[in-house]
Amino acid sequence: EPEVTQTPSHQVTQMGQEVILRCVPISNHLYFYWYRQILGQKVEFLVSFYNNEISEKSEIFDDQFSVERPDGSNFTLKIRSTKLEDSAMYFCASSLNEAFFGQGTRLTVV
Amino acid sequence: GEDVEQSLFLSVREGDSSVINCTYTDSSSTYLYWYKQEPGAGLQLLTYIFSNMDMKQDQRLTVLLNKKDKHLSLRIADTQTGDSAIYFCAEINSGNTPLVFGKGTRLSVIA
Fold it and tell me: From the candidates A28, A98, A100, A108, which should be mutated to test the interface with B, based on the most B CB atoms within 10 A?
């Protein structure tokens, strides 16, 4: 069964460092998303991507965040200068109709 | 903005039915979803219902939608210990707009 895969599963980084979270969406899907879940809190929308551009973003998705689809398969989320409060589980999702989620990357900023 | 509310905890005995409730505010919701999250894992799509339906059944899962009251429920029949997880209700307004999630209901199944 096709699935969304995310790497790494867990990343620890020092405050101020850049991180890139990677996702391989389901191959025939057209819409791609990043969500995050701070421990014990809601799953929050960050950004959606369609037709090689951002289609919608939340107020969380500020200038330190960027997304790319560098080739036909990968979809990345870059955080330029990580802060302690960026520690969260980051989920990638892709959809045609229903959204399918990856297993998440747990980012820990120390 | 749109909001989705769920009770935070539910505890049931193995073999009983579980009913997880959700309310939402967006009257333009088109799809409503239930996701399951096991400890340390991602979000698994369990089932969804289109807004013009009242009920959907899928094996042990029954989804009921009361569109007038903006109330969604998930019933799990014959609940098993493997059903212990956090269950998220989510709604989508149209097309491929972002999902709006509730805070999740932690279901604990007691053997």
Answer: A98
For residue B10, give the amino acid letter. Answer: L
CA distance A15 to chain B (A): 23
pLDDT of residue B95: 63
Q: What is the pLDDT of residue B109?
A: 97
The pLDDT score that the predictor gives to residue B98 is 86
- Report the residue of chain A nearest B86, measured CA to CA: A40
Interface probe for B, chosen from A42, A49, A67 (most Cβ of B below 10 Å), is A42
The 3-class SS string of chain B reads: CCCEEECCEEEEECCCCEEEEEEECCCCCCEEEEEEECCCCCCEEEEEEECCCCEEEECCEEEEEECCCCEEEEEECCCCHHHCEEEEEEEECCCCCCCEECCCEEEEEEC
**pLDDT tens digits along B28-87:** 888 899 999 998 788 898 999 998 999 999 999 999 999 999 999 999 999 999 999 999
Q: Which residue has the tokens 């980051």?
A: A90
Strand segments (E) across chain A: 5-7, 10-13, 19-24, 31-37, 43-50, 53-57, 65-68, 75-79, 88-95, 99-101, 105-109
Asked if residue B17 has pLDDT above 90, the reply is: yes
Question: Does the CB of B64 have a partner CB in chain A at under 8 Å?
Answer: no
